[in-house]
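Hi! If you just cloned this repository, the fastest way to understand the data is to look at a raw example. We've pasted two of them here, unedited. The first protein comes first, obviously.
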Amino acid sequence: QVQLVESGGGLVQAGGSLRISCAASGRTSVSYNMGWFRQAPGKEREFVAAINWNGGNTNYADSVKGRFTISRDNAKNALYLQMNSLTPEDTALYYCAAGRIYGTRWFEYDYWGQGTQVTVSS
């Protein structure tokens, strides 16, 4: 079993930046691919970014490409998402995920955190 805990969310003005983190514990493995998803009220959970087991490959949703950067520190069992040039459309509950598949769909991941809220004001 793997436990994931997100942190770092908060209220940010449009155009601002924020870095959120995900700490992993339990039966963690360097072989896990990891990703970030987000969900706003009344909307489906959507893919944000993914990173493979060694950090050598990344993938981003078109809506965040060029603004967000996903990274990981396997020695610390940590995942990060640096978010720049934030807009109100980025407001959502952000979840980190881990799994055996380097994917872009929520059901391709095996473990999930509880989420951290990011709110961007205009």
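Ok, and the second one:
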Amino acid sequence: QVHVVESGGGLAQAGESLRLSCVASGRIFRVVAMGWYRQAQGKERELVAVFNSGGDTNYADSVKGRFAISRGGASNTVLLQMNNLKPDDTAAYYCSARLAIRNGDPVDAYWGQGTQVTVSS
């Protein structure tokens, strides 16, 4: 069974940095893309950053120039380096992995449980 786990969230002051990590484990045939979403209290979930197997990246306008998504050293791992954090970055951050479990299977999205990031002024 596929398991997606996020880590690295916590408390930070404005201007500080955090790094989030997401690991997808289990029986995986192909990784199409991995990315990060966030949902602040009272707001809709939004895309933060995505990284696909072709090396393309996309970022929300609010994090461009501050956040960077990259592949980690371990298999099926993606990192999100968050620099110059702002209070508006406070949210639950969720990792999404778009995977095919077996050859010929359709691609499905698998989600982690989330990690909380809280940024104080």
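That's it. A detail worth noticing about the second one: DSSP finds no helices and eleven strands in the chain.
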